[in-house]
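Ops channel
N.P.: pipeline sanity check, posting one input/output pair.
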């Protein structure tokens, strides 16, 4: 009987010794472990962007241009919104996509969005076109506004195609108030340009609207539209990257540009922060390499697949993470200056040095 008892004591003592050694190694690798004093991670939980989740009923679906579907989503007591706001749609597959509101901001019974089918996109527009039908309920989040209409003595809008959706409610508001505004509206063809008839009616008084169909007259004259701007004129642009780049290049130095992109701005492949670096996940005690052509999100998810994300383009803020150490190369258009001090969107932003430490 003594021998089995002795064997048990030896095994238990050995296990305890191994556990103590493992614990010492764990603490040596991460002195703050187990981090009881750190606040909760911020991924997907930014208080600034926290919005109610609602289920709305699709009561109307219509095609407002070639390849563009408009949806009316009805519910009770919906919050009012300001021109330029967008809505997050949680699609049946779980994908989350952002679409600009293009209805009446004062309508508390329905939201209206429109989306163009992008055949070679990331799947969101295809799902909207193929699966969202009248009578279906869909989860939405928002509205939120990162493209607001500011006070100005005059306005110039340069828009391409589906980029008209966030601008439409702005034009309605400005037309109703008698403000001074002009619009340059371009597209592949007149048939492909949503809300064209309404836009032309809004600008019928005073030749405010210039429509340029590429199949008729080529590309719009961006430089001409922005020439001789009166002092204080607010310039707004929404459209594909070639258009936004052309507008930015045509503006005089120091002139602010109110911009909403279809996709994240392309980074400088040879610029600072574009090379490889390491990311330490402080809470888990792991370090992962980030290759030159790889996003921080992709690298982090190899070690922490639970990390939340959605748009992967720096738009939605779902992947926002607190940064404990390292210099951030911000490549998003969403975070405020205060947020940029200690957090980043890991789907697009990178590191300006060799190492970042995330609160993960």
């Amino acid at each position: 009987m003594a021998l089995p008892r002795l064997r048990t004591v030896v095994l238990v003592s050995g296990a305890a010794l191994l556990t103590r050694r493992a614990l010492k190694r764990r603490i040596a690798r991460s002195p703050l472990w187990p981090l009881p004093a750190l606040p909760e991670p911020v991924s997907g939980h930014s208080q600034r962007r926290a919005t109610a989740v609602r289920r709305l009923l699709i009561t109307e679906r219509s095609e407002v241009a070639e390849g563009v579907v408009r949806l009316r989503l009805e519910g009770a007591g919906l919050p009012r919104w300001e021109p330029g706001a967008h809505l997050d749609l949680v699609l049946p597959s779980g994908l989350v996509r952002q679409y600009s509101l293009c209805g009446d901001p004062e309508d508390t019974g329905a939201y209206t969005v429109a989306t163009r089918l992008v055949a070679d996109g990331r799947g969101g527009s295809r799902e909207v076109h193929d699966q969202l039908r009248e009578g279906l309920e869909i989860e939405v989040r928002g509205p939120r506004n990162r493209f607001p209409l500011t006070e100005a003595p005059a306005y110039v809008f340069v828009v391409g195609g589906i980029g008209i959706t966030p601008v439409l409610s702005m034009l309605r508001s400005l037309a109703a108030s008698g403000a001074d505004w002009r619009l340059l509206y371009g597209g592949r063809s007149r048939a492909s340009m949503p809300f064209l008839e309404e836009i032309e009616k809004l600008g019928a008084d005073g030749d405010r609207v210039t429509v340029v169909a590429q199949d008729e007259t080529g590309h719009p004259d961006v430089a001409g539209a922005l020439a001789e701007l009166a002092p204080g004129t607010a310039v707004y642009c929404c459209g594909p990257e070639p258009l936004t780049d052309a507008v930015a290049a045509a503006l005089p130095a120091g002139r602010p540009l109110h911009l909403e992109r279809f996709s994240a701005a392309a980074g400088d492949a040879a610029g600072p922060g574009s090379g490889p670096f390491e990311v330490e996940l402080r809470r888990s005690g792991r370090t992962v390499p980030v290759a030159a052509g790889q996003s921080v999100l992709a690298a982090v998810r190899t070690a922490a697949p639970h990390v939340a994300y959605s748009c992967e383009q720096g738009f939605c803020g779902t992947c926002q993470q607190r940064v404990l150490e390292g210099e951030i190369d911000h490549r998003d258009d969403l975070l405020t200056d205060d947020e940029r001090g200690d957090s980043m969107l890991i789907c697009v932003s990178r590191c300006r040095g060799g190492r970042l430490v995330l609160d993960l």
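N.P.: looks fine end to end. Confidence is low (pLDDT under 50) at residues 26-50.
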